[in-house]
Amino acid sequence: MTMLEQRIQQHFFDSADLKFQAAEPLARPIADAAQALLGAITGGGKVMIFGSGAGRLLAPHLAQLLVGRFERERPPLAALALGATAAPAAPQVRALGLPGDVLLLLDNGEGESAGVIAAARGKDMTLVVLAGRGAAELRELLAESDVLVAVPHERAARVAEVHMLVLHCLCDAIDFQLMGDLEP
User: Distance between CA 24 and CA 133 in Å, rounded?
Assistant: First the structure.
């Protein structure tokens, strides 16, 4: 096996190890996040999604899964990704956010989140924050009713991999709550 092949395998091992270690401590915050999203959706609100760094690519992915489908057909759910246009996310939150809505924020520690959090706070929205490094600073900006899913890793690539899994867990949890278990 070449050094490059060993390096590639190590990425797989590191990713799998982080996911295994994070499964237990993240289960409760992910369940809380799913409940927050479900509460907004079933209460007539919407889910607004914003991401920085790699999260910028994950935000439209989640919006598509909620509006379209995850693993089975269901009615479309009210969700939109912010920052897809030239308009910054904070003004979009101020223009479109309503009490009862949820802002799901994918933060990779680049420092773009404070303004978006403040905008959501000003609209009396619930926040669900997926973070990696920088989670401690973000925790200070959140209210008790908000949810923080803090991935315990410093590398942005590993955090993004877990964030993708968390998004899929959220979609599955919402579908399960709305429609029950998948048929075998």
Answer: 19
102: closest CA among 77, 78, 128? 128
Cα–Cα nearest to 126, from 42, 47, 71, 29: 47
Percent of the chain at pLDDT > 90 equals 80
Cβ neighbours of residue 59 closer than 8 Å, sequence gap 6 or more? 49, 50, 51, 81, 82, 83, 84, 104, 106
- Alpha carbon of 81 to those of 7, 12, 36, 56, 183: distances in Å? 35, 29, 17, 9, 31
Q: Distance of alpha carbon 180 from its chain centroid, rounded?
A: 22
At 52 the pLDDT is 86
Residue 89 in tokens: 């996310």
Query: Nearest Cα to 114, choosing from 127, 124, 95, 101?
Result: 127
Please answer whether residues 41 and 47 qualify as being in contact, where contact means their C-beta atoms are separated by less than 8 angstroms. yes
* Structure confidence by residue, pLDDT tens digits, 16-47: 999 999 999 999 999 999 999 999 999 999 99
